[in-house]
Amino acid sequence: MSTHTITCDMETGVDICDITDELNALVSGAGIVTGMAHVFVPGSTGAATTIEYEPGVVNDLKRAINELAAPGRLYDHELAWHDGNDHSHVQAALLGPSISIPIREARLALGDWQQTVVINHDNSPRTREMVLLQKIFPGQRDRSGVKFTQHKKTDFRRILSALKFLPS
To answer: Cβ contacts of residue 112 below 8 Å, gap of 6+?
Structure first.
């Protein structure tokens, strides 16, 4: 497993930044041929998703986000904090802070017209930091031919049963 951080300077939300090339470079550089990439955006006003990153879709997504959780509405968060970014939290929560993408042949397994993006919903410009965690699957080999093995097997059914989430 490896962890990396990338950043993107972003304008006041809704601002969308394509991070696909940076992610593919990190995946390739890590030597993972088959695995999973997890992208997480720390903070409660940022999000991660995939779209076709072209001006029409980008504008459509911005408009849809602002219609779902419009700036200027009365939100309870604003009544409590008076910081003007009430809608930002709701918008980010609707999309979510993370995305998982399979890695195949040392690249993100995205569709032909699919890019990974980070979104700033905040009411001020921000430098968004994304955390990328890459995991190689047990039994797979990295590019150097080293086989990854799982050292400890966890029996999640036994754990869930013990916690009373499943019948024993």
So the answer is: none
